[in-house]
Amino acid sequence: MAPSRKLRELEARLDYTFKDRALLKKALTHASVRQANGKRRDNERLEFLGDRVLGLVIAELLSEVYPAASEGELARLFNRLVRGGTCADVARTLELGTVLVLSESEAGSGGREKETILADACEAVLGAIFLEGGYAKAREVVRTLWAPKLDGAPVGVADAKSALQEWAQGQGLELPSYVEVARQGPDHAPHFTAEVRIKGRKPARGEGTSKRAAEQAAAATLLAREGVWKHNASA
Predict the structure, then answer these.
(1) Phi, psi of 196 (to 5 degrees)
(2) Cβ(41)–Cβ(34) under 8 Å?
(3) Sign of the CA dihedral 11, 15, 19, 22?
(4) Which of 147, 172, 177 is closest to 161 using CA atoms?
């Protein structure tokens, strides 16, 4: 397969087409190439930038999805989502290993499968998207690629839906029901708005990148409004 075709396929997986293809190639170029030919055209500076972009997007996403979490709980989940192993997993999803530019010796020693190289390249690609497409596009790409990691991550955040159900039962109220009231965005990056309803109480709404997250946010909003939970604190 021609290199240009591989890059086009990568862009399709990213849902972003580079205007400057050289910038993408730089993001995929490992430092071993510089060591081999003396030219500074590797991805280390882009990796530095992409790491910061990733951190900001993930912090924003966690604050949205887990409005009742404590700072400590958010920090633990944040570290899990931005660590090298997670970035390497995303890189494998993107099949970055097939398009990395490595020195002959690095490629020969299995560099295309090394976790550190994959993680750095993943962050470098995010940095390149940020430089060319801006924060909004980089944010969209990160949220799309990391959403499965977020939905499947075990976290120590209080379960707002369970807490709300227990509270309703304790108050002698009917059990909560949830309704999807809006869905926006493309299929690959949807954004949901859910409403929780309890007879005798004003409904509350929440938003998230999945139905589950939106329902959790709605439950947390109602709990906070009723004084059961403090805002941005776990039960």
Answers:
(1) -105, 135
(2) yes
(3) negative
(4) 177
Residue 123 catalytic? Answer: yes
- Return the pLDDT at 44: 93
* Amino acid present at 54: L
| Structure confidence at residue 132 as a pLDDT band (50, 70, 90) | very high
Do the Cβ atoms of 206 and 67 come closer than 8 Å? yes
Q: How far apart are CA 146 and CA 166, in angstroms?
A: 31
**Quick one: DSSP state of residue 42?**
S
For residue 118, the Cα-to-chain-centroid distance in whole angstroms is 17
Name the catalytic one among 89, 106, 123, 215: 123
pLDDT band at 82 (very low <50, low <70, confident <90, very high): very high
Judged by phi (left if over 0) then psi (alpha if -120 to 50, else beta), residue 227 lies in: left
